Amino acid sequence: MFVKYKIRSKNLFFLFVGLIFGLYLGKEFRQVCQKILLEERIINRLDNSNKLPKTLFVGVMTAKKYLKTRAVAAQKTWIKTIPGKVLFFSSQSSVSTPEVPVVGLEGVDDSYPPQRKSLLMLKYMHDHFLNDYEWFMRADDDIYIRGDKLGIFLNSINSSRPQYIGQAGQGKKEEVGLLYLNEDENFCMGGPGMVFSRATLRAIAPYLEKCLDNLITTHEDVEVGRCVRQFAKIPCTWSFEMQRLFLHNHDEPQGSFTSTLAGSLVHSITLHPVKSPPFLYRLHSFFLASHSNELRHRVLMKRRLLSNYGEPSLTKFRKRDVQESLSWNFIQRHSYTRNNNNPNIGIYDSYKEYLVKTIGNFLDYLNLKSRQRGKRVEFKQIIYGYTSINPKEGANLILDLLIMYKKQKNRRNIPARKHTYLRTPFSDVQCRVLDKNNATINIIVPLLDRHDKLKIFLEKMNEECFKFKEPKVRLLFVLYAGVSLNNNKRLITEYQSKLTGHEILFEQKVAEFSRGSALQYGASLFKNSSLLLFLDIDILISRSTLQRVIQGTVQGKQVYYPIVFSEFLFKKNDELNDSNGLWRQFGFGIASMYKSDFLAVKGFDTRIVGWGKEDVDLYEKFVRTNLSVLRAVDPGMIHMYHDKHCDRSMWNFDMCMSTKYSMFASITGLAEMVLNNTILRRTKHNDNFDVDMRYFQGAR
């Protein structure tokens, strides 16, 4: 009996253990199966998501001659923002490059009007990409498209229905009746771009060749609209808002948005025409800056909310003494300020742009509920205003504006004046940790004669640079034959024998003097990893300037264009102020960069002879690249006054003379000379004023 009980207990024990082990294995097996099923679901979802059509395909019509200019500029700017694919369509002989993907349409040339090119491009989109994208856009090569904004706009519209979107047109007044359109018929203007849904493209694709064989006018966009209306049974969007979203610039005769960029442009999706590639880069920078300002504003509002900062006030600043009093400048058509020797000066373009942007942001705030109110506010002009800078808070504005209320119901425009108080706060201080850089600065100086300036230059270099071990300097003179050539060689050789740790070199170039050619030749003598500083013989530099050159020049990322202080002929002392000179904001001859970056933009245009123009050409090349251009005042760079010879045969004769006269003296200095009878004096014989030209003999 005891044995039977023992056996039964043993069996129960194994049964219990087996049950526990089975439950554990079942749980593990179930988890493994769930994991496998989950992975299969994720893979299936990823496969299905990859099969879903992408948002947008953009076909850009261009010509073979624009593939290296407009097409490249578009590729480096707005195309990066497109939520989809972009291809350029050109003549049959056009081929793709690594920078620009091109489809050469069979049987198509670059003749104008491009009706065949346009309709066959739509046929190509249908045959190759219909199931891959929801939306299809036809665009010109002189357009700027804000891809991120266009993507958001299209995602709000039903793409499964026939859609034909753009700025509606019916032709110019003189074309009424010649386009064969009824009063209720329109077309999407080709310049600002036209967008088709997949359903629209599917509907018109079988009939595109028929449309091509039955053209009525020479206007390509009119014929595309006629084809869509006939076979997709839809017109172009009639919405009044499309004039702003698909913007065609009627204000400037040549287009290109060459004047001040208004803040209202931030509401546009496409902008046309942008004929010149540099202005395409300018537009791109404008929108990047606008986006950056918007993000900074959001951060500021969040901080204000979290810290209970309160609303900004123009009277918040409390001065401790008279010296801390804020001065206000009065602006109307001109600016009246106590900070300039000339109290009545024009408003600088950069400041105009700031005013337009600030007022544009203010009007955007007013127009947040424009649809509900049935009216929009538009800026017309500044009647008058006051501006000041609070060093702790930001820029303050008190403006009296002329604005226009545009009612949407009856399209009435009502002018009004609005008194506004605005503040543009400073952004946060940004710090950058600078790595210790022991790079050797290779200074290149072109030289033709000017032995007296060479003496001063080398004395200053010896005092500021050669006496110190760091930073290391290699100074190269590119000499041209002249009356002082041998004297210049002897002087340079004297300094060569004295130096330790630094180098002075010279190379003679046998050719007609050309600054750009001299600097190009000098740069060719150094390695690609070398840091170059292009300098002139009449520029005196300090040791601190060399440090700024090293810090402000970053290989592959940034070039440095310092703003130099240019001395007047008649100056009171050596202080850097308006009485003794001016900051040469219009000069681009002094620059530092790494040779690899210099070569990347293909250096100077050596076809330019003499002085001038070659520096601006190089600067514009850098602006068109992805490199940052650091442009800042450098208090360690002084441009010594020298005689300026202007020949009437020069292409820039007027600019040369203007520069020559502007460097005699400050307005205050000239006024003092007049008051002291230094320049203007009364003759003994009559009361007429006579000019004593002896004071200008040295400036001729």
Oligomer: single chain
Poorly predicted runs of 5 or more residues: 1-7, 45-52, 683-700
CATH class value of the largest domain: Alpha Beta
CATH topology of the largest domain: Spore Coat Polysaccharide Biosynthesis Protein SpsA, Chain A
The major pleated sheet works out as: 6 strands, mixed
Instruction: Using the 3D structure, state the CATH architecture of the largest domain.
Output: Alpha-Beta Complex
Any idea how many domains?
5
3D shape: globular
Structural class: alpha/beta
**N-to-C terminal Cα separation, in Å?**
136 Å
Give me the CATH superfamily of the largest domain. Answer: Spore Coat Polysaccharide Biosynthesis Protein SpsA, Chain A
Helix percentage: 25-40%
Across the major sheet, the strand order is 3-2-1-4-9-6
What is the tally of helical segments? 19
Backbone CA Rg: 35 Å
Average pLDDT figure = 82
Fraction of residues in β-strands: 15-25%
Secondary-structure blueprint:
Layout: H1 2-51, E1 54-61, H2 70-76, E2 84-90, E3 102-104, H3 115-129, E4 133-140, E5 144-145, H4 147-155, E6 164-165, E7 168-169, E8 187-188, E9 194-197, H5 198-204, H6 208-213, H7 220-231, H8 242-245, E10 246-248, E11 270-272, H9 277-307, E12 329-331, E13 334-336, E14 344-346, H10 349-366, H11 370-373, E15 375-390, E16 394-407, E17 413-425, E18 441-448, H12 451-466, E19 473-480, H13 485-498, E20 503-508, H14 515-524, E21 531-534, E22 539-541, H15 543-552, E23 558-567, E24 581-584, E25 591-594, H16 595-600, H17 614-623, E26 628-639, H18 653-662, H19 667-675, E27 680-682, E28 689-691
Parallel strand pairs: 1-2, 1-4, 2-3, 10-11, 18-19, 18-21, 19-20, 23-26
Antiparallel strand pairs: 4-9, 5-11, 6-9, 7-8, 12-13, 12-15, 13-14, 15-16, 16-17, 21-25, 22-26, 23-24, 27-28
